[in-house]
Amino acid sequence: MWRKSGFFARILHDTPISLRESLAFMEKQRACSIYTVGSIAFIGGIYGIFNAVTQRDPLVLALRIAFLALLGAGSLVYFVTRKFNVAKYPIYAGLLLLIFTTFHDAGGITGLGLFFILPALPILYIAVGSRASSAFAVFAGLGMVARILYGHYPVTSVLNQPGAPLRMIVVVLFSTAVVILVFHRIDVLMAQLTQLVMTDWETGLSGRWKFREVLRNRFVRKTGTGLQESFSLVGFRIINYERVNAMEGPSRSDAVLQAVGSRLKGWREHVEITCRWHSSLFLTLLDTGDFLEVDSTCRDLLAVLSKPVDIDGRPVSLLCSVAVTRFPDDFEDPDGVDEAEKMVGHVLSTLDRHGNMPDELIFFNKKMHQAERYRYGLLESLVKADFDSGLSLQYQPKVRFADGTCAGAEVLMRWNHPILGSVSPVDFIPLAEESGSIRRLTRKMIRQVFLDLRSPEFLEALGSTPPIIAINLSVNDLTNQDLLPFLNRELKVSPIEPSWIEFEITEGVLLGDNPWIRINLENLLILGFRLAIDDFGTGYSSLSYLQRLMVHDLKIDQSFVRELSEGNAKANSSVIDAIVSMGKSLGLEITAEGVETEYQAAYLAERGCDLAQGWLYSKSLPFGDFVAYYKAHQAVLSGQ
Fold first, then answer.
1. Is 593 among the catalytic positions?
2. Catalytic residue among 293, 593, 596, 606
3. pLDDT tens-digit map of 430-459
4. Quick one: 92 exposed, middle or buried, by C-beta within 10 A (0-12, 13-18, 19+)?
5. Most buried in the list 28, 39, 81, 216, measured by CB within 10 Å?
6. Are 136 and 124 in contact (CB under 8 A)?
7. 205: pLDDT strictly greater than 80
8. Any bridge partners for residue 199, and if so which?
9. What's the alpha-carbon Rg for the chain, to the nearest Å?
10. What local confidence, expressed as pLDDT, does residue 446 receive?
11. Where in the chain is the domain with CATH 3.30.70.270?
12. Taking the model in full, what pTM does it have?
């Protein structure tokens, strides 16, 4: 197949975008070759003009000047436009003129000018390709042979020596044949290398590069009315591919990919091109953007792909998910930086959010994508954030039901983004845990809390019962082997009573299988710190672990408290009653979160809750304001 037509014409098969216009590397090589040939030819042309003037040959002089003019014009056009299709005509004409001039003067006064064209042909190949350079080589070779046989050389030409013409004819024919053979072999090599780039060798589908070029070209295709045609991009992912690879082995998983590739190649309805993007992800370009047509086509294709694959006589099940984005429906502004990359990003982000749902067809959602982009930008900012300047702490007071005194506070983080402003902890805390930044945040919090509790204003405000300051610890914190050494270092720098600090953990932490969780929790108790279970009732707890670990406090999640009202008190009263009853049987304090109404406070106090925090008592406060709140509510206890 590769020998029947020119390499550059067939390399993309039916794709309208040529390889030479798409590969930046080859474009640079072509530009380099044009400028190199032009520079050398210009120098040689000046020398040729000098010889023509010396020999008083007006025809050669005119031909040399015309050659330099054409070559210069072609090079200038290419430099300005970067379009070789425009610049090639004056360059071709100049080269033909140069060859004719060489024939006319029989290679100059020595006759060796006949060979000057041969060293330039390999460079010319890069600029004009195999066909044109081979044609020039044949034309130059036959022309030189004809000129040698014609005779009438300058007196000083080597061709006047006996036997020289025959030897030079042999050299010219041999050199021309070698040059053409080299061009052909380079052509074949380039075709094979490009085939590897253009095709996925495992499945036989198109490669990523070719698919990207076809997709980019799709954005510029117009209808008869001048409008861009609608189309769709579909992504297929084999969800259980990694499991198949691990359980069945690489050879069987490769066979699975080949089977999926065969199924996709056999599907022609609305399909323009299909590629294996990476691993177990395949992309298909459909020639329709109509929702019903896309939905029907994708569901049919999903049913075909999801059928088990027979490998060595044994069926291997496939779990697939499909994501779809449509143009122009999913583009508010189609004139973007790179629409093709944006469209692929739509599919990848949709699969990333919903890709573990087998046999599901998910259409791209603009609002969800915008939220995802917000999370992504926030995550990137969080990783690079300077927490020394952007992070601040707030203290939300805890109030004792029995006497209204301030029993302590929970420390909350606040992040002031340089562009977005204040970011809610609901947004950035999960991202911090996802990225691993939570350890930096926690250490910053602990260090600052220890410094605050050593400040003169706080020590001066201490009453008979020191407040308990609660700090949240994540799973990432508790699996860190350096947590206890860090706390010991901070206690030496800012010595406080560990019993003033209560570390809050969620119930799910107790079920973690990392041994460092248990080691760190037990050592926190040995150091004298308190432990509390946060958001109790929303997860799964090991009650035996609660008793063995000697937790000090259970915090009733605010979702239960929020539903308490005079109209539907029975909705969550049984859950709250059960938590309080269990906590009291284990000898634990009970704290209710999110208390916002007098009714909620009265109900919780009646049931036996010890502490409350929420906006009924106070919003979160900067440290200085919390100290003032603590002092004022200690005065209630002393009767001042």
1. yes
2. 593
3. 888 887 888 888 999 999 999 999 988 888
4. middle
5. 216
6. yes
7. yes
8. 206
9. 40
10. 93
11. 208-364
12. 0.63
